[in-house]
């Protein structure tokens, strides 16, 4: 009988939470093994193709729940491969939010000032940069002009995109063929590999058990590379410690399934899920009014007609990101692109008769698709999502060979969330319908519930053991040696795109994880530079890192 | 025929011939059926293919119950759902898709794939679909790719400031 495979640190998931920690631990000398549920695709394999089975459905997951559906990455690089690379930092007031628990949700040690140096590290590593109006697409420019026309401000958003390489193809969710999007495939992951980390795709972790010496055994199944409904056997690896970063839709499910083996999980595992307060509106532009009222013209003479052109979100309205406003009334309104397929079915005919989302009138709406402008709301929701019992494997009962599954999350929006969405809907309407520029309607929540591309908070950090699953060093309460570093650790909706905050928290978690690893006998040191060797941001975090290492 | 009538209720199209019963002819131009809905539903990759027989049977039963409730006599020469008018089909499908219907998730799946056949030709490589004049993508104004089958838009920006920046923007370009 052969001995079980051993590693120092087993990382589950290769998105921001997994890639960042894997890099630092491998660079520091630990033996690191990364198990990733999805496939491993490179830029030459990313396709401009909606056909089922193309990269779009191989690397993207859509899990339908009760009242909330989740979209997320399912590949080496995780969300960074499918995301739109908008990287704003969370506004200062977010860290003071109380939400549903009546007191501050974030750990006392974290606020915007203490997180800024970690944001800087991510900004240096990816890198993230600001954009100006020459980088902004027609859709972003139109949104900016509409905001200005209604007396509001608008900002080009900071992004992790190399604009010199970007072709504005708007296929970002299928993976960037041009290496313009600075996904983790271009920085942290190759650096982790260079330091000896091993990444194994199509390994779906199901549950953990304990070893006699305080470590863990990670149990996985091999997933078929084409039909994810098919599994080819199982395996297990023993590790001195585990970093769980399977995403907010999967991390709590793995822990739930592990509970019979590991013992009682903290109450907050699989609770307090947030959809980042997300909701979409589709505006149908009156092209003539765009020209007459806003004075916009493309070089080819069209005023707009540019829904297909771009690179996801480029411009956001942040006027409501004002800490003096009451909680649940602060939100951002960001121009976005959603591809056909999932991006049209939920759009409703503005002012249309029932049915508003299918049928003859909807078909007429589709005929105007080029003149659509999608506005993305990110409000403060109430962390009302709860995961039910886990499915037999993974985080969903898979329906299609790829992408589509049925999960166990239930999400019934509270009055706070519904009121915030209604406020944001009304504001979008006020902006885009002014002077006959457009007609707008929100996407329906009657079909697949609400939906989020940014699942958060299902295994969150905090100071209060009754409402947080992790301590402020991201260690799972009562289960030493398990750390959670993905979006599930973020305590609440952020009112902006969360990738930058997820990544900054992952960077911040590393000194504490390294210290814990050393206590477990792993020969590892903290202090690696940025993946490409830059050291400026490392200097900025040096003192903080010493404090976190205890 | 029943599945065609369902797909045609989601994205209606013109009749393929004067005696077309499945396609109700409720809209001009091709709809989901002409866009390839049946081809997509028949592809096992969707996961709905094994359910189709059952869904057709259930749709027939729902149509009969609907007709009984409305006091309608259905033309027995076609399946019950096909015998309904477009307005009646729409009314029934609305009920099946309404929050709380016990079979809702199955009808949502059928709706999703009917729509995807039209708006993204999910059964065909997109560049091929464009070359073949796929009716849905064409109607939506989806542009033709470059000769290598990839989309690029060298002109993408109005190229001028279009709004005042938020006064509290930080040097990183983020909100304060």
Can you characterise this structure?
The complex is a heterodimer of chains A (550) and B (176). Chain A has helices spanning 16-27, 55-58, 79-82, 112-125, 138-149, 188-194, 251-262, 287-294, 360-366, 415-432, 499-519, 536-548; strands at 5-12, 32-35, 60-66, 68-73, 155-156, 198-200, 203-210, 216-223, 231-244, 278-285, 315-317, 332-336, 372-378, 385-387, 397-398, 404-411, 438-442, 450-452, 482-484. In chain A, the strands form 3 sheets. In chain A, strands 1, 2, 6, 7, 8, 9 and 19 form a 7-stranded mixed beta sheet that branches. In chain A, strands 3, 4, 14, 15, 16 and 18 form a 6-stranded mixed beta sheet that branches. In chain A, strands 5-11-12-13-10-17 form a 6-stranded antiparallel beta sheet. The model of chain A has no long low-confidence stretch (mean pLDDT 97). Chain A has 550 residues and is an alpha/beta fold. In chain A, strand 1 (5-12), helix 1 (16-27) and strand 2 form a beta-alpha-beta unit. Chain B is an all-alpha fold and 176 residues long. Chain B has one domain. Chain B has helices spanning 2-10, 32-35, 37-41, 52-70, 80-83, 86-97, 104-119, 126-131, 135-140. The longest helix of chain B has 19 residues, at 52-70. The radius of gyration of chain B is 21 Å and the shape is elongated. At the A-B interface, helix 5, strand 5 and helix 9 of A face helix 6, helix 7 and helix 9 of B.
């Amino acid at each position: 009988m052969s001995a079980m495979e051993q590693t120092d640190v087993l990382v589950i998931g290769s998105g921001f939470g997994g890639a960042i920690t894997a890099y630092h631990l491998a660079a520091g000398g630990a033996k690191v093994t990364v198990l990733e549920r999805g496939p491993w695709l490179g830029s030459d394999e990313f396709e401009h193709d909606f056909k089922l089975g193309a990269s779009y459905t191989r690397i993207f997951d859509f899990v339908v729940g009760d009242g909330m559906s989740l979209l997320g990455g399912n590949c080496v690089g995780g969300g960074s491969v499918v995301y739109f690379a908008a990287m704003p930092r969370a506004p200062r007031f977010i860290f003071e939010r109380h939400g549903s628990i009546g007191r501050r949700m974030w750990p006392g040690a974290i606020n915007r000032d203490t997180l800024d140096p970690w944001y800087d590290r991510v900004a240096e590593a990816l890198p993230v940069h600001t954009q100006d109006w020459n980088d902004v697409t027609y859709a972003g420019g139109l949104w900016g002009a509409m905001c200005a026309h209604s007396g509001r401000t608008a900002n080009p958003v900071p992004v992790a995109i190399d604009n010199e390489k970007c072709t504005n193809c708007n296929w970002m969710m299928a993976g960037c063929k041009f290496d313009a999007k600075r996904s983790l495939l271009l920085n942290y992951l190759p650096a982790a590999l260079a330091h000896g980390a091993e990444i194994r795709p199509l390994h779906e972790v199901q549950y953990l058990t304990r070893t006699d010496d305080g470590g863990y055994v990670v149990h996985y199944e091999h997933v078929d590379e084409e039909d994810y409904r098919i599994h080819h056997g199982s395996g297990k690896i023993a590790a001195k410690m585990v970093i769980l970063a399977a995403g907010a839709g999967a991390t709590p499910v793995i822990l739930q399934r592990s509970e019979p083996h590991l013992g009682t999980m903290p109450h907050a595992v699989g609770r307090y899920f947030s959809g980042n307060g997300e909701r979409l509106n589709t505006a149908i532009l009156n092209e003539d009014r765009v020209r007459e009222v806003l004075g916009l013209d493309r070089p080819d003479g069209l005023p707009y007609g540019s829904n297909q052109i771009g690179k996801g979100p480029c411009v956001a309205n942040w006027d409501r990101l004002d800490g003096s406003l009451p909680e649940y009334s602060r939100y951002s309104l960001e121009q976005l692109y959603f591809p056909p397929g999932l991006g049209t079915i939920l759009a409703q005919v503005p002012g249309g008769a029932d049915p508003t989302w299918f049928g003859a009138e909807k078909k007429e709406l589709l005929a105007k698709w080029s003149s659509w402008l999608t506005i993305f709301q990110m409000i403060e929701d109430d962390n009302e999502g709860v995961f039910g019992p886990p499915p037999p494997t993974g985080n969903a009962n898979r329906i299609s060979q790829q992408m589509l599954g049925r999960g166990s999350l239930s999400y019934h929006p509270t009055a706070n969330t519904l009121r915030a969405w209604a406020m944001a809907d009304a504001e979008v309407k006020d902006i885009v319908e002014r002077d006959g520029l457009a007609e707008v309607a929100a996407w329906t929540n009657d079909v697949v519930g609400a939906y989020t591309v940014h699942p958060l908070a299902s295994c969150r950090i905090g100071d209060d053991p009754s409402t947080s699953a992790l301590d402020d060093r991201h260690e799972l309460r009562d289960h030493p040696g398990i750390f959670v570093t993905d979006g599930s650790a973020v305590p609440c909706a952020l009112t902006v795109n969360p990738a930058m905050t997820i990544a900054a928290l992952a960077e911040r978690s590393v000194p504490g994880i390294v210290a814990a690893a050393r206590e477990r006998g792993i020969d590892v040191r903290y202090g690696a530079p940025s993946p490409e060797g830059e050291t400026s941001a490392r200097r900025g975090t040096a003192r903080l890192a010493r404090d976190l290492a205890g | 025929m029943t599945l065609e009538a369902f797909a045609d209720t989601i994205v209606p199209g013109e009749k393929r011939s004067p005696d077309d019963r499945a396609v109700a002819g409720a809209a001009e131009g091709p709809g989901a059926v002409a866009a390839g809905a049946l081809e997509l539903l028949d592809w096992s990759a969707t996961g709905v293919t094994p359910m189709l027989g059952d869904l057709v049977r259930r749709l027939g039963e729902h149509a009969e119950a609907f007709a009984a409730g409305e006091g309608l006599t259905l033309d027995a020469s076609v399946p019950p759902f096909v015998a309904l008018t477009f307005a009646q089909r729409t009314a029934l499908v609305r009920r099946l898709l309404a929050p709380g219907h016990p079979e809702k998730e199955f009808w949502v799946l059928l709706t999703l794939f009917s729509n995807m056949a039209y708006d993204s030709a999910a059964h065909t490589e997109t560049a091929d679909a464009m070359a073949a004049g796929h009716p849905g993508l064409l109607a939506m104004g989806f542009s033709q790719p470059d000769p290598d089958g990839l989309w690029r838009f060298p002109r993408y920006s109005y190229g001028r400031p279009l709004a005042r920046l938020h006064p509290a923007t930080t040097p990183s370009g983020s909100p304060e």
